[in-house]
Amino acid sequence: MAKLNFENKWVLVTGASSGLGRAIALYLSKVEKANLIIAARRKERLEQLKTEIESAHNTKVEIIVVDLNSDKGVDNLFKQACKNPGLYAVINNAGVTYYGRTTAEHLETYERIIAVDFRAVMKSSLLFLDYFREKGAGAILNVTSMAAFTPLPYQNVYAAAKHAAQAFTEALYQENKDSGVVISSFAPGGIATEMNVKSGLDKKFPLDNPFNMKAEIAARKAIKAFKKKKYLSVPGFMNKLTVFLSRFFSRKAVTLGTEIIYRPPEKN
């Protein structure tokens, strides 16, 4: 089976202003020689990344400033990206989380998590799937999480959204496996990124924690798996082992284990 080839092709990466999305964009431009459409909310960050990439590599970069918290944002992403007739692949990477006890006080935050981590992924995948089917070829990579496979107390809604995104992507693959459109998922564990700091998760798991993968390593693994058209890729031996072993315990036992691991530190 022929691998995906990103050289001189246009690839859309969401959530590209920081973290894994930024690392994916840098890897695609440097190693794969891809042209990029980078999308996120923060225009200045995108412009800095565009300058960094174009000054260092012989690749082109376009910018889409968008908030994927709404249907309007997803529609705008799709319309802007499709103005480029060379669009070859889409990487739905944008995501947000919250760390702490699950209470009604944070409902607005939970709604944003569901909107960005699942609804935007679902709608974007369907819109670009139709677009690629009409073209006769294309590829979609949805970045989910290890949280897609176990309940996760204190990141409850995040895990639920990732469960939904993972199940959706796997089923969408099955429905369209003979369509000519590649559909893949990438489910990393902890990554040392800005999202951990913003959510407060770094207070439990510092960025230099050995179980946090570096964004550059995760990006390389994501693209290598995507090129191979992998149905699902879980990077890292310990992450793979965790997913495998969780199958042999009751859901209640798994949830108890994750609650102990993720229990917020006591305030002084």
Helix fraction by DSSP (H/I, runs of at least 4) = 40-55%
Low-confidence runs: none
**How is the largest sheet built, in terms of strand order?**
3-2-1-4-5-6-7
Overall structural class, as computed from helix and strand content, comes to: alpha/beta
Mean pLDDT equals 93
Cα separation of the termini: 57 Å
- The count of DSSP E runs of length 2 or more, i.e. the number of strands, is 7
Biggest beta sheet summary: 7 strands, parallel
Strand percent estimate = 5-15%
Helix-strand pattern: EHEHEHEHEHEHHEHH
Gyration radius (Cα, Å) is: 18 Å
Tell me the number of helical segments per DSSP (H or I, 4 or more residues long): 9
Q: Topology, please?
A:
Elements: E1 10-14, H1 19-30, E2 35-40, H2 43-56, E3 61-65, H3 71-81, E4 87-92, H4 107-135, E5 138-143, H5 156-175, E6 181-186, H6 194-199, H7 215-227, E7 232-233, H8 237-245, H9 251-262
Parallel strand pairs: 1-2, 1-4, 2-3, 4-5, 5-6, 6-7
Helix pairs in contact: 1-7, 3-4, 4-5
Q: How would you characterize the overall build of this protein?
A:
This protein is of the alpha/beta class and 268 residues long. It has 9 helices and 7 strands; from the N terminus they run E-H-E-H-E-H-E-H-E-H-E-H-H-E-H-H. It has a 7-stranded parallel sheet, with helices on both faces. The model has no long low-confidence stretch (mean pLDDT 93).
In short:
This protein has helices at residues 19-30, 43-56, 71-81, 107-135, 156-175, 194-199, 215-227, 237-245, 251-262, and strands at 10-14, 35-40, 61-65, 87-92, 138-143, 181-186, 232-233.
